[in-house]
Amino acid sequence: SFSPFLYLSCLGSTIVLPFTCLFISGVLGATPVEIEHHLEMGRKLLAAGQLAEALSHYHSAVEGDSKNYLTYYKRAAVFLAMGKSKSALPDLSQAIQLKPDFLAARLQRGNILLKQGSTQEAREDFQAVLKRSPNHEEAHDQLSKAEELELLQEEAHEAHHRGDYITTVQVLEKVIELSPWDPESRELRAECYIRLGDPRKAIMDLTPATRLRADNRAAFLKLSQLHYSLGDHHDSLNQIRECLKLDQDDKECFAHYKQVKKLSKQLDSAEELISEQRYQEAIEKYESVMRTEPNVAFYTNKAKERICFCLVKMKSAEEALDICSSTLTDYYKMNRIFEPFHFIREGLDRAQKLLKQSRKRDYYKILGVSRSANKQEVIKAYRKLAQQWHPDNFQSEADKKEAEKKFIDIASAKEVLTDPEMRQKFDSGEDPLDPENQQGGGGGGSREWPFGFNPFEGGNFHFKFHYN
Predict the structure, then answer these.
(1) Residue 117 backbone zone (phi > 0: left; psi -120 to 50: alpha; other: beta)
(2) Where do the TPR repeats lie (predicted)?
(3) Among 54, 227, 397, 454, which is disulfide-ready with 46 (CB 3.0 to 4.6 Å)?
(4) Do 56 and 32 contact (CB within 8 A), yes or no?
(5) How far apart are the C-alpha atoms of 282 and 440, rounded to whole Å?
(6) H/E/C letters for each residue in 99-150?
């Protein structure tokens, strides 16, 4: 509805445009009472923490009276409460334009600009406040911070220019403390972390940087590439999709998206096959993974580790021993190149366990009997093989050593399979003759590393992260 006053004004001016007049009266010509109602509701809802509802009322108040500097200022306060500093800036600027001596708005705008790293503009606002109010304590403090920030920004860029990335990171720590909403400082620190071999910290800086710029496709792409290099293919896929939301025709993002999507699908499919105990198909799928991404060590080792797991499950002892040993060797190599990230430590542990499983003696296979063989059948097979592989039957030293090993395995197989308790343990996946199992599984003992070398004791290992 519109008031009689507005109706009369329409009659007095342009009676031939009633709908235009109605629009003007309904939106642009709200009465002071209506505007005050919106402001009061906005204030109450803001106090109650109902920010979206409060903002709606302040929108109506601004539309009703676009010349009221306080209305813009109050709406800016709601935007700030919602964490939308970018949206608050235009309202603060409009309030200042309508009332140049409105010091509260200048101070608030200066504070936002300082946090965004815009030191020159922030300094101008603080100086304007001090010009009208020379003893304004907060303006003095913030002006000092703006001047300090300028010096720190310059120092950080100089350190970066000369390739001193450690110093750059240290200085940027102070810069970001003063200007947490500055994407440029976070992106610069992320680049330094990458060069220093700490991609996880780079990710921590780039993640907020994507939200601090309106169109930060470069940061989304870099985030996706970092996650991908670390083996976080799902996170990589999520980040590259964010890039394509901003521009679906971005060539770099689309090319990377196709690669990540293909690899991620293969990895998920392989794990699903393993969960269904379709181990041979899972092996083939992981072989596809290695063909899709042969250049990132994480995926190659992950694939070999899972193939090792499948072969152990399939009881393909010789093949399992070969690839499990190779996987463990690769993890040791990675540990010498990378600092011990959690995935390398976990990979080493898993590879060791799988290698141990692949090396376990299959007592049924040693004696050539079925798992349902009775005691008499076991003893019969034992006697035949013991006679065949007795060391006295061999002449050369090499043949004797091989026979001794086989003879010990045959004797061990007979011992386990003729003892009901030991046989039950073996059938449940435990080797009763394994010294570690006899000591309670080795849970409290020290880990045995090849050649007495423990890669996690002593030594400094540096992760060399190559990023293009």
Answers:
(1) left
(2) 69-102, 103-136
(3) 54
(4) no
(5) 33
(6) CCCCHHHHHHHHHHHHHCCCHHHHHHHHHHHHHHCCCCHHHHHHHHHHHHHH
What is residue 274's three-state secondary structure?
helix
Q: Report the alpha-carbon distance of residue 40 to residue 58 in Å, rounded.
A: 9
Count helices and strands (H / E) in the chain: 24, 0
**What pTM was computed for the model?**
0.67
pLDDT digits (tens, 9 = 90+) for 364-410: 889 999 888 999 999 999 999 999 999 889 989 889 888 888 989 89
Question: Whats the size of the chain, residue-wise?
Answer: 468
Distance of CA 248 to the CA centre of its chain: 23
Average pLDDT in the chain: 83
Nearest-angstrom CA–CA distance, 442 and 339:
27
Model confidence over 23-45: pLDDT tens digits? 333 444 578 899 899 999 999 99
Give the whole-angstrom CA distance, residue 62 versus residue 90: 13
| 300: amino acid identity, one letter | T
Q: Is the separation of the CB atoms in 240 and 210 below 8 Å? A: no
The contacts found for 252-257 with CB under 8 angstroms, 24 or more apart, are 252/221, 253/217, 253/220, 253/221, 253/224, 256/221, 256/224, 256/225, 256/228
Ramachandran category for residue 442: left, alpha or beta (phi over 0 → left; psi -120 to 50 → alpha): left
Q: Is 446 exposed, middle or buried (0-12, 13-18, 19+ CB in 10 A)?
A: exposed
Cα–chain-centroid distance for residue 174? 24
The CA–CA distances, whole Å, from 285 to 113, 138, 227, 310 equal 53, 64, 22, 12
Quote the DSSP letter at residue 457.
S
Comparing CA positions, the residue from 327, 332, 330, 316 lying closest to residue 355 is 327
Task: Give me 376's structure tokens.
Answer: 């008499």
- Do residues 367 and 381 make contact, with C-beta atoms less than 8 angstroms apart? yes
Q: How many CB atoms lie within 10 A of CB 466?
A: 8
For the stretch 155-169, pLDDT in tens is: 999 999 999 999 999
In whole angstroms, what is the distance from residue 240 CA to residue 303 CA?
A: 23
Smallest CA-to-CA distance from 117 within 184, 71, 67 is with 184
* Tokens representing residue 57 in the block: 């009322």
Look up tokens 């996170």; give the residue.
Answer: 235
d(CA 331, CA 304): 11
**Integer Cα distance of 220 and 208 in angstroms:** 10
- Which distant-in-sequence residues (6+ apart) come within 8 Å of 147 by Cβ? 119, 123
Residues 6+ apart with CB under 8 A from 274: 282, 306, 309, 310
CA distance 176 to 297: 34
